[in-house]
Design brief:
Strand content: 15-25%
Shape: globular
Order of helices and strands: EHEEHEHEHEH
Radius of gyration: 15 Å
Number of helices: 5
Number of strands: 6
Structural class: alpha/beta
GO cellular component, one term: plasma membrane
Strand order of the largest sheet: 1-4-5-6
Oligomer: single chain
Keywords: Cell membrane, GTP-binding, Lipoprotein, Membrane, Methylation, Nucleotide-binding
Subcellular location: Cell membrane
CATH class: Alpha Beta
Protein name: GTP-binding protein Rit2
InterPro entries: P-loop_NTPase, Small_GTPase, Small_GTPase_RasD
Bound molecules: guanosine-5'-diphosphate, magnesium ion
């Protein structure tokens, strides 16, 4: 399940993973569900469903139901958007709360890695520290635009067997 603030690039990451393409459009997502077959490191194939949440945040009851049913979560922020970083922190804690345990597969994702220089507000160290020390979850930085680390993200997110 892909969660995070509006416009951080959730749909772009999804499209890069499924279609291997990047289109620079900013269409709002309500909630898109993708079916995909992946090959696991063990050699087995698994059928997975990925839910790209957008405006679902405006429907907390539905969002929380999806969280309750979900197996793995990518919580995305944009490295050039401080508010989205705070939203991601809140979202991770919210997932832990709903699941009632910290034993949940969460990957904190800093997207828009290509926005370097003055565009970047959240450093790699900052994201990594938060993930490892406070949230105790995995961490990856991606660029949906340049297709950096997108497959790595899904590898971390999905089960090994
Ligand atoms: N520079 C850059 N822009 C991106 C990246 N990913 C998404 N975007 C842009 O950010 C905007 C929002 O993307 P979208 O996928 O719709 O965000 P969502 O609301 O989280 O689904 C669009 O204009 C995308 O082209 C990225 O990795 N780098
Ligand atoms: Mg979207």
């Amino acid at each position: 399940m892909l969660l995070g603030a509006e416009s951080v690039g959730k749909s772009a990451i999804m499209k890069q993973f499924i279609n291997e393409a990047f289109t620079d459009n900013n269409t709002q997502t309500v909630a898109d569900c993708y079916q995909h077959v992946i090959k696991l490191p063990s050699g087995l194939y698994r059928h997975i469903q990925i839910l790209d949440t957008g405006s679902l945040n405006q429907f907390p009851a539905m969002r929380d139901l999806s969280i309750r049913l979900g197996h793995a979560f990518a919580v995305v922020y944009a490295v050039d958007d401080y508010d989205s970083f705070n939203t991601a922190i809140d979202m991770c804690n919210h997932i832990y709360q709903i699941k009632g345990t910290r034993n949940v597969r969460i990957v904190l994702v800093g997207n828009k890695l290509d926005a370097t220089g003055c565009g970047r507000l959240i450093s790699t160290e900052c994201g990594l520290k938060l993930a490892s020390r406070s949230l105790k979850c995995a961490f990856v930085e991606t660029s949906a635009k340049l297709k950096l680390n997108v497959s790595c993200l899904f590898q971390t997110l999905l089960p090994e067997e």
